[in-house]
Amino acid sequence: MTKYQPYIMRSLISLLLLFSFIFIYPVNVESTTAGKNVSKKELVLVKDYTKNFFIDMKYATCNNFTGKTLYPSPTCVLTKGTLDKLIKANNLVMKQGYKIKIWDAYRPLSVQKIMCDATPDKKYVANPYGTGSKHNRGAAVDVTLVDSNGKELKMPTGFDNFTEKASP
Fold first, then answer.
1. What sign results for the dihedral spanned by CA atoms 22, 56, 68, 64?
2. Does 5-149 carry CATH code 3.40.710.10?
3. Can you give the pTM of this predicted structure?
4. Phi/psi zone of residue 164: left (φ > 0), alpha (ψ -120 to 50 degrees), beta?
């Protein structure tokens, strides 16, 4: 065990606790049923509120499980309430020399459908024909941690891992 592992573990625990609030706290959305996305006026650009995240929107590249570019641009948006909580989490990990790297945020329902259709094991991708995903409401983010040089920390899984290791 390296001298940094206890700090990394505390960072991860802090991050997980704050994310539990993100997913439990109700989000003001137009509708939470499939076929309806969050109202555009409720979404905010992350870069307009902070420059303290590393942003690597994986679905704006072909470096994802579909092998296709799913977003026309790497624009990162969330609801303001979700972003506020993510900023708090990032402030905690920054005190320990790390930053949050955002891989995905708000996701249109049309992209959720593509992802669901491309996934053989549906337990890892929300059903767009049911309640959809919290991503479709701007209330979920896919993240990792990076060090001060922007290098990703070793985690139990990488991005787009559809195994038990990535299961809640």
1. negative
2. no
3. 0.78
4. alpha
